[in-house]
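stage 2 :: seqdesign
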């Protein structure tokens, strides 16, 4: 191959899916990231050298080697480094010719039998490029964390104009190519290139390992299984989903075992942070029943309450319940996409609920809650996103009875940029809190949540930024909630 004359590391580096002895290291070679093929040969592979060290200066080199970046995978690298120390901190970088990538920092998980003093995760979701800067991620890069949990909507499928919407690019407008909806593999690959060009996103990936899962916009808004929002022919949507899943795998720090086969990708998986936390990562899009009553906020009825309906699919549900039953962890953390707890939009006994969230699949939720109760899980934590707001909610055994047992807590994290700046108290703020007594907090500004676990309690710090439609916003902790181990339920700290 002719030596590269342009920097191929324009989209940064990343790591993820931490095990006690292994992490995945990722990069994508893209000297021309806004061109199909990245400005590289359409066939073959580019050899990429890599180094992993125990120090940032790379004087204590731990492992090194060469790995291919195949054109068939859009010149991405998914390097599964093994033989590492549990609970270790490492630095890594890549090289092609004279070009050296930014340095990334990563961590392995603790040993299986370890009881770490604590573990800290950031919860992020919903990064719509044209609705704001990824300011929150720049602040997240400076947090002291074990990992980032990205629970969906890493990209959006909508057309983006030359000014990049709210970003108002004038001096360097975007190529016209982005001004249409994503449909094929090239569309999705270039959309990831656009998102990953953001320096704050690159900084957050370089600072921490990420565990990722998707929601809907990585393919299409509110799709359900092979049912598209606009009821496209199944074969048409199957091809679109296959393209989207391939681009997702290419652009995330995911292992080879998760590589999609056509429109199918086995994304749900389980990790452990010693005996302190079990982390179950779900996929509530690929296997779900179609939304009842045409989607949206609707009154529940026989269609939505059909016990055969599922948001996880039967196999994933069994896997989740079996894992909870077998768990010996102090905390059982479920990272997933859409609001799990009930959300009514009126104080009346009968109220509309979201057919796209677990409210639209009450039989699925009941089976999970029954399984949690049956397994004797004392410290359940559900992490959710999707709705572009912060919520702190108690997970009730019976949401019709505010006095029923609290089985756990749910942290819903707001968006990074979707929804523009947002506001602290939207128009329905009083109504939602009154209609849902298990809802302890509601804020509609942009940001993320830092969730810290130790043997005695969970702490959720709801971070918000001052704004995202202009760069450079400040970060603050808008609220802090805690839940004591063995006595679930949120209280404000």
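stage 2 :: out
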């Amino acid at each position: 191959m002719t030596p590269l004359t342009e920097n191929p590391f324009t989209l940064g580096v990343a790591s993820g899916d931490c095990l006690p002895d292994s992490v995945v290291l990722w990069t994508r070679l893209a000297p021309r990231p806004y061109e199909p093929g990245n400005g590289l040969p359409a066939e073959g592979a580019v050899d990429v050298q890599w180094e992993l060290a125990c120090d940032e200066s790379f004087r204590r080199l731990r492992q090194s080697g060469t790995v291919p970046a195949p054109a068939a995978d859009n010149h991405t690298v998914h390097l599964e480094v093994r033989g590492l120390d549990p609970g270790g901190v490492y630095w890594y970088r890549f090289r092609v010719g004279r070009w050296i990538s930014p340095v990334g920092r990563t961590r392995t998980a603790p040993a299986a039998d370890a009881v770490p003093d604590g573990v800290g995760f950031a919860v992020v979701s919903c990064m719509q490029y044209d609705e704001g800067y990824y300011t929150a991620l720049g602040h997240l890069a400076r947090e002291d964390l074990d990992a980032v949990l990205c629970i969906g909507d890493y990209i959006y499928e909508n057309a983006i104009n030359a000014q990049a919407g709210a970003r108002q690019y004038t001096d360097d407008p975007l190529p016209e190519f982005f001004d249409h909806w994503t449909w094929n593999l090239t569309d999705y690959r270039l959309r990831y290139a656009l998102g990953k060009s953001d320096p704050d996103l690159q900084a957050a990936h370089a600072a921490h390992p990420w565990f990722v899962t998707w929601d809907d916009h990585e393919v299409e808004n509110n799709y359900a299984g092979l049912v598209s929002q606009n009821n496209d022919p199944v074969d048409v949507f199957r091809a679109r989903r296959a393209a989207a899943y391939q681009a997702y795998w290419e652009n995330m720090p995911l292992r080879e075992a998760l590589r999609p086969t056509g429109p199918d990708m086995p994304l749900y998986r389980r990790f452990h942070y010693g005996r302190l936390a079990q982390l179950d990562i779900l996929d509530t899009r690929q296997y779900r029943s179609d939304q009842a009553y045409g989607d949206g906020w609707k009154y529940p009825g026989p269609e939505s309450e059909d016990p055969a309906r599922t948001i996880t699919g039967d196999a994933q549900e069994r896997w989740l319940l079996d894992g909870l039953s077998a768990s010996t962890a102090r905390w059982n953390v479920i990272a997933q996409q859409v609001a799990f707890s009930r959300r009514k939009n009126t104080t009346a006994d009968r109220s509309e609920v979201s057919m796209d969230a677990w409210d639209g699949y009450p039989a699925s939720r009941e089976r999970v809650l029954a399984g949690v109760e049956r397994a004797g899980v004392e410290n359940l934590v559900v992490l959710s996103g999707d709705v572009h707001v912060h919520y702190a909610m108690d997970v009730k055994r019976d949401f019709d009875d505010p006095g029923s047992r609290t089985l756990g807590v749910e942290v819903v994290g707001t968006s990074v940029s979707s929804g523009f700046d947002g506001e602290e108290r939207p128009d329905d703020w009083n109504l939602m809190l009154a209609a849902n007594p298990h809802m302890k907090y509601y804020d509609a500004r942009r940001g993320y949540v830092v969730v810290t676990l130790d043997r005695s309690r969970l702490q959720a710090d709801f971070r918000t930024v001052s704004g995202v439609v202009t760069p450079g916003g400040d970060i603050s902790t808008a609220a802090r909630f805690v839940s004591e181990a063995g006595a679930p339920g949120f209280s404000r700290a």
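stage 3 :: structure notes
- The longest helix spans residues 234-251.
- The first strand starts at residue 13 and ends at 19.
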